[in-house]
Design brief:
By secondary structure, the chain is of the alpha/beta class. It has 12 helices and 20 strands.
């Protein structure tokens, strides 16, 4: 449980030595913006994460920002997290790797919420929202970058609001800070409606963020979230969909290079009882883990994606920690579940379960495969095909329930282990599928019903016998309760 209290002492220069350097660096940036709010209200974890508590963020500070009417910026509450970066430098939460690169995960979260008339204190529900996102980051080790989206499927404040999803962007005021433990940047959460999320998925998050900045009631220049907003930017200006989003998809494709999702795959080339099968695919089975090198390559593919003006290529396998630089492509995070496992447990389970050395996991060519997605992941298949593969790019589904990964690649992507001769290839639980442009066009016609926003009756099955490919779209319960 969290408690709300004013901060005390941390802002006093004479007491700076009492506070960890990482904490002081973030406090310093907050003091620069709010010199007259030395002791803001703060939500703090009663039992710290490093003592076994459930909340990864030690603190969330809450400031009153008066805005700037001359710049069309309304008054709002400004929330800042402490804990995704390394606050202490003693390995209690994050492994200390030096001052180069990112501190901890390399960022902290912020959020700007419109201040309602008569409101004298900031609502505390954003703190739990930020804790939920932090649990996801710690459990999955998937970091956020500007332009990413989070599909939440519930009003952010548990009301009846249409604001049910999030985009991420750089905080417009807070500057990156250098700490003894690395650099910390500040990523702002922006609440959006379902239609805006879908547009970000189909086109790109940065483009939708720019449209939101241009509409006062939808956020304005500083992207302030108004939970009472009842209209999408497309309701307010219907021309935005056709003139900006649809045109952008047609000319640029999508810059969404992958999503964390509910998905599995089956190798239909082998009998299920084959114990030598290294696939991570049978629901209810115990899969082998992805090797560290495979994991790094998938993360690089998801985080950096493709350069727009160069030939498409999957990043080479490397063992270096992934960069926190702003990516060319965005990443989607398709879940709203709350994670309770600690990062320490996750890391220990990874090392203990990596029973097959990377060098011994051979790449296997498969004759026939069966892909399984939940409904939300399935609805992104047309985006994957039209917005990515037809533009010579790739798209990855990374399972949130295990190490399964499915990467679709076009014939123009270099560095893939799937080829035109062997279009289905697996490296442990990582499956790559190479699709020709002709087959992509055929699949788009067959999957047309997935483009609709209406609920599809499940399960749905699509099969291309001549290509030995089968796709099923299944209810969430199949993935949430795999043994049932």
């Amino acid at each position: 449980m969290d408690e709300v209290r004013p901060t005390s002492g941390a802002q006093t220069p004479g007491l700076a030595s009492l506070f960890p350097p990482g904490l002081q660096a973030i406090y310093g940036e907050c003091r620069r913006l709010y010199p007259d709010q030395a002791n803001p209200l703060q939500v703090t974890a009663i039992v710290k994460y490093w003592l076994g508590g459930p909340d990864p963020l030690d603190y969330i500070s809450m400031y009153r920002n008066v805005g700037c009417p001359a710049q069309d910026i309304q008054e709002h509450w400004h929330y800042v997290s402490f804990g995704l970066s390394d606050l202490y430098g003693d390995n209690r939460v994050h492994e200390f790797t030096g001052a180069e690169g990112g501190s901890g995960f390399g960022f902290e979260l912020t959020f700007r919420l419109k201040r309602e008339v008569g409101e004298t204190a900031p609502p505390t529900w954003p703190a739990e929202l930020m804790q939920g996102l932090a649990r996801y980051v710690f459990q999955s080790e998937n970091t956020f970058c500007s332009g990413d989206h989070v599909s939440w499927h519930s009003p952010l404040d548990n009301s009846e609001s249409r604001i049910q999803h999030m985009l991420l962007t750089e905080d417009p005021q807070m500057q990156p800070v250098q700490t003894p433990f690395g650099t910390v940047s500040f990523l702002q959460i922006v609440g959006v409606c379902t239609e805006e999320l879908q547009a970000a998925q189909q086109w790109n998050g940065q483009g939708i963020l720019e449209l939101l900045r241009g509409v006062h009631v939808a956020g304005g220049p500083w992207l302030i979230t108004d939970m009472r907003r009842g209209e999408t930017i497309f309701d307010i200006d219907p021309h935005l969909q056709q003139e900006r989003v649809d045109q952008g998809i047609e000319t640029e494709g999508s810059n969404l290079s992958g999503v964390s999702a509910k998905c599995v795959w089956d190798d239909l080339s082998r009998p299920p009882e084959d114990e030598e099968d290294s696939r991570s695919i049978c629901i209810g089975s115990q899969p082998r883990r992805l090797s560290d090198k495979d994991t790094e390559q998938i993360r690089e593919a998801l985080r950096k994606g493709l350069e727009f003006n160069s030939k498409a290529a999957l990043p080479p396998i490397n063992t270096q920690r992934q960069s926190h630089e702003r990516p060319q492509q965005s990443m989607g995070h398709l879940q709203s579940q709350q994670y309770e496992r600690s990062r320490k447990d996750s890391l220990e389970s990874e090392s203990s379960a990596a029973i097959v050395p990377h060098e011994l996991v051979r790449t296997r060519q498969l004759e026939s495969v069966h892909l399984k997605f939940n409904q939300e992941s399935g609805t992104l298949l047309p985006l994957c095909l039209r917005g990515r593969l037809l533009h010579g790019r790739h798209f990855t589904y990374k399972s949130i329930n295990g190490d399964t990964a499915i990467t679709f690649v076009s014939t123009g992507v270099e560095g893939a282990f799937a080829t035109e001769e062997h279009p289905y290839a697996a490296h442990g639980p990582w499956l790559q599928i190479l699709l020709t442009e002709e087959f992509v066009e055929q699949m788009l016609g067959d999957l047309q019903e997935l483009n609709t926003r209406e609920e599809t009756k499940l399960p749905k099955e699509y099969s291309w016998p001549e290509k030995k490919l089968k796709i099923s779209v299944l209810p969430d319960s199949v993935f949430d309760n795999p043994l049932q």
